[in-house]
Amino acid sequence: MFYYGGMTPDLASAGNAEARQAALATLGGQTRELIDAVVLTDVPEDEITAVTAELAALTGRLRTLQRTAPQSFEAGPDGVPRHPGNAVIGSANPHALPLIVESTPERTVRAELAFRPSHEGPPGWVHGGVSAMILDHLLGHAAAVAGSPGMTGTLSVRYRRPVPYGEPLLATAEHTRSEGRKTWVEGRIALPDGTVLVEATGLFITPSGWGRSGPE
Ligand SMILES: CCCCCCCC(=O)SCCNC(=O)CCNC(=O)[C@H](O)C(C)(C)COP(=O)(O)OP(=O)(O)OC[C@H]1O[C@@H](n2cnc3c(N)ncnc32)[C@H](O)[C@@H]1OP(=O)(O)O
């Protein structure tokens, strides 16, 4: 486990910290709804202007006290690692789906997901960079589950078919081999019937000084 710090000591204490994380996750979820509403809105222009003014006021309230350090990366009460600020899995990060990654007994990983309208790239389809980001994280998680946590060295993505948003999909990944600090992983995003839409292979490097759980 590693900890970036960033929370004041009183907030980091027990139940207080849990309640705060829950509140931040709720804020993150509401903001995701806002982002999609903005992307899809068709209200009249004067309403857009009025909402924009209200949002500016809300943004100002949140900016009155801002963290200067990243969110912590730590185990939750259920023992599952969590990183609320992460762009892929972070409950408190509106950019995150958030992806919920499960490990299998075979030490592979899987995540059920549905992209959002805000992930659009080509009209009606998901942006290729967003698919790559999801696979990057999932492959990294697979390397970690296999006992070789690391940073992405290379990521190769093959886009087989356009990826829809708003539909259930399944992402899976598994470790293929390791040599010293280098670990190769592969994964894919597929339709529920198994049709592969995007597949990726990645090389993850365990930086010197990291243990089997990440930075120490
Ligand atoms: C559970 C959570 C999952 C989270 C997943 C998140 C994934 C991410 O997004 S990580 C962020 C994106 N990646 C990065 O920012 C990485 C930036 N790069 C770095 O920090 C460093 O270059 C790092 C850590 C990859 C390698 O640094 P370092 O440990 O000094 O490696 P170094 O000693 O030079 O090389 C070790 C070996 O790896 C190889 N290698 C290093 N970098 C690369 C690379 N990019 N591509 C291919 N091979 C590489 C070297 O050739 C060497 O091989 P060999 O042992 O055969 O000679």
TrEMBL record:
Transmembrane residue ranges: none
**Residues annotated as domain Thioesterase:** 124-195
Localisation per UniProt entry:
Cell projection, Ruffle membrane; Cytoplasm; Membrane
Give GO BP annotations, semicolon-separated. fatty acid metabolic process
Among the GO molecular function terms of this UniProt record, one is: hydrolase activity
Q: Which InterPro entries match?
A: HotDog_dom_sf, THEM4/THEM5_acyl-CoA_thioest, Thioestr_dom
> Which Gene3D superfamilies does this UniProt record tie to the protein?
Hotdog Thioesterase
Catalysed reaction equations from the record = dodecanoyl-CoA + H2O = dodecanoate + CoA + H(+); tetradecanoyl-CoA + H2O = tetradecanoate + CoA + H(+); octanoyl-CoA + H2O = octanoate + CoA + H(+); hexadecanoyl-CoA + H2O = hexadecanoate + CoA + H(+)
**Protein species of origin:** Planobispora rosea
What are its E.C. numbers?
3.1.2.2
Task: Give the family from UniProt.
Answer: Belongs to the THEM4/THEM5 thioesterase family.
Alphabetical GO CC annotations of the entry are: cytoplasm; membrane
Report what the protein is called. Acyl-coenzyme A thioesterase THEM4
Which UniProt keywords are listed? Apoptosis, Cell membrane, Cell projection, Cytoplasm, Fatty acid metabolism, Hydrolase, Lipid metabolism, Membrane, Transit peptide
- Identify one Pfam family in the record: 4HBT
Principal localization? membrane
Membrane-related topology note:
Peripheral membrane protein
**Key word Ubl conjugation present:** no
